[in-house]
Write a structure and sequence with these properties.
Blueprint: E1 3-9, H1 15-24, E2 29-32, H2 46-55, E3 59-62, H3 70-79, H4 82-94, H5 97-109, E4 112-116, H6 126-137, E5 142-146
Parallel strand pairs: 1-4, 1-5, 2-3, 2-4
Helix pairs in contact: 3-4, 5-6
Length: about 150
């Protein structure tokens, strides 16, 4: 049986819309892959998000080890060099194999979505995490589904 790993960015969403998307996909666990799970958007910081998810029957897991380190984020904001950002994050991710393996094993038994800010997974580190989980599970098939809900 092929497993699925979903990803979602909350950039254009509020908590109501986020919960609706997760429920529509049958998500059981939201895995927050922000290094610092803080947001200016109401209800999307760690404690508020954890509470609203619990009220909707969805588990919350903050996996800080897979968050993009501050120095990498800040360098990207300064130079907007996507190639440098990608190289730096992938080098960091290679040092976090234990966390990747833990997530991979969890995905086998739980319907999960990786959460970060950016609406487009192609511009977010969560796509690299999803790829790493897929590699960790190989040859077991894993379908990655990047959700792109509209506001």
């Amino acid at each position: 049986m092929e497993e699925h790993l979903f990803t979602i960015g909350y950039e254009q969403l509020d908590t109501t819309r986020l919960i609706a998307e997760l429920r529509a996909c049958g998500i059981h666990t939201l895995v927050d892959v922000r290094e610092l799970p803080l947001s200016r958007k109401p209800g999307l910081s760690k404690n508020g998000l954890k509470q609203v998810l619990a009220e909707n029957g969805i588990a919350y897991w903050h996996l800080r080890a897979l968050g993009c380190p501050r120095e990498i984020r800040h360098a990207y904001r300064a130079d907007h060099d996507r190639q440098r950002y990608t190289s730096a994050f992938l080098a960091y991710l290679a040092t976090q194999q234990e966390a990747v393996d833990e997530l991979a094993q969890y995905v086998v038994n739980h319907r999960c979505a990786l959460l970060c800010y950016e609406a487009d997974a192609a511009t977010c580190h969560r796509s690299y995490i999803a790829d790493a989980v897929q590699q960790a599970l190989a040859p077991q098939p894993l379908q990655i589904v990047h959700l792109r809900p509209q506001a």
